[in-house]
Automatic annotation (TrEMBL):
Belongs to the transglycosylase Slt family. It comes from the Bacteria. It comes from Tepidimonas fonticaldi. Residues 119-209 form the Transglycosylase SLT domain. This is Membrane-bound lytic murein transglycosylase C. Gene3D superfamilies: 1.10.530.10. InterPro entries: Lysozyme-like_dom_sf, TAT_signal, Transglycosylase_SLT_dom_1. Pfam families: SLT (PF01464).
Amino acid sequence: MDTAPGPGLDRRRCLGRLAGLAAPVLAGRSLVPIAGAWAWAAAAPAQAGAQIEEPLSDAVRHALQAAVEQLDPPEPEFLTAEERLAYLRWLSRASWQLRRRKPEPQARVDFLQTVWYESRRAGLDTALVLGLIEVESAFRKYAISRAGARGYMQVMPFWTRVIGDGDPDKLFHLQTNLRYGCVILRHYLQRERGDLFLALGRYNGSRGRAPYPNAVFAAERRWRLA
């Protein structure tokens, strides 16, 4: 059933218009926010919707291609010692929160560091991206939805043809999947003029319906405590 967003979501729309407008500094550079064959036996179906392939202008397609092209190592650098300490405190708390989903400590650190890096690179809130991953794949690297979406952020394979090198198997690579997912979400956020509710619906293929955005917002709140 289609339902209109309640009053609580109006605040989200306003926050969405403001989020990520400033370019974060990562690895010593200012990054401007952007305008989405193996281990099959272990891949369980994910309960995600399907992003819809839509026509892109040449300018948008080239911008998205440039955004996913180069995978720099996800190693954050900080301007001050205080920023680094804040990051390490967050990493410790988030790792503890994720321990049941990812029991191996180094795997948790690698995952969280990459989420932090890629979300900031795209001008997105890290807690929001973690909430989206929780809803989309339940933190399963090899998740595949009934629609064919792949990996942590459930990226549809057509994106590798439209803006990548055409190899959908790369969507099971940690940083590649997060790079595509964050770039695609940022693209949808710009298409919806900063309306996070509609951007999340577009990401899930359920634009205008409340259940999916509400689920992501609820998961985001849990991660924001970290």
